[in-house]
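Tip: read the tokens left to right.
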């Protein structure tokens, strides 16, 4: 008879992560969306059968969930907890060596704007958060953010109900340290709702099987109008373009 000891089997999780194809799949799914096996295979640069084998292992291990859509099976991270754990591991992991122009361009695009599971990160995420604070939508509060009374009204004009979000179990706001900007962007239920609204309006554009998001031409005009966020504020600072080094400190994404 076996007895439960209460100890966590970290080696089981480590085994799932100790493969570059599976790691690429997990990082890709930090975009928070549903992605096909074929798209994940292309992203990882492996055959469809090999990708399917890795996806089975990740699903059986509890890190991924699969949803049928017609004849297709789409994959996502199984929970917010998995996303949070991956974000911490990103902070601890050394950067990959860039070996191609494609990788270099991808790295620049990620630093411009990316999804940190369900909220906006990168220069766009940090710049938007700064604009929300400067515009009186948010106030820094004990390491996080507080929504002001005028901010709640402004969010309502964007069809974001702050009161409803605050009533849910998930924290309304969270200051998430951005590894590429070395500053904080808005996370939590409000960060997720705002990012979803920007995507819905077409102000941000996501890519399939990628964390990268880009501000559209329409979005640049809208962000300037609604948040006083200028195109110059969205540009990468030259000092952030020379490497992929993570800032070792608080949680980053």
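Filled-in amino acids:
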């Amino acid at each position: 008879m076996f007895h439960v000891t209460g100890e966590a089997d970290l080696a089981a999780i480590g085994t799932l992560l100790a493969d570059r194809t599976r790691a690429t799949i997990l990082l890709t799914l930090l975009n928070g969306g549903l992605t096909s096996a074929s798209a994940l295979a292309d992203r990882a640069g492996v055959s469809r059968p090999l990708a399917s084998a890795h996806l089975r292992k990740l699903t059986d291990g509890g890190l991924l969930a699969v949803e049928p859509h017609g004849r297709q099976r789409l994959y996502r991270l199984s929970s917010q907890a998995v996303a949070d754990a991956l974000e911490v591991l990103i902070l601890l992991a050394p950067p990959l060596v860039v070996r191609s122009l494609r990788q270099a361009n991808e790295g620049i695009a990620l630093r411009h704007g990316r999804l940190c599971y369900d909220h906006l990160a990168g220069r766009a995420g940090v710049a938007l958060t700064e604009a929300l604070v400067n515009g009186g939508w948010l106030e820094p509060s004990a390491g996080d953010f507080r929504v002001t009374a005028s901010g709640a009204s402004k969010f309502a004009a964007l069809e974001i109900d702050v009161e409803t979000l605050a009533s849910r179990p998930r924290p309304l706001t969270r200051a998430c340290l951005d590894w590429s900007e070395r500053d904080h962007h808005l996370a939590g239920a409000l960060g997720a709702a705002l990012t979803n609204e920007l995507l819905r309006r077409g102000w941000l554009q996501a890519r399939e099987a990628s964390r990268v998001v880009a501000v559209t031409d329409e979005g640049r005009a809208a962000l300037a109008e609604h948040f006083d966020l200028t195109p110059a504020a969205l540009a990468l600072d030259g000092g952030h373009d020379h490497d992929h080094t993570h800032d070792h400190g608080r949680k980053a994404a």
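Residues 7 and 13 are 13 Å apart (CA to CA). DSSP finds twelve helices and eleven strands in the chain.
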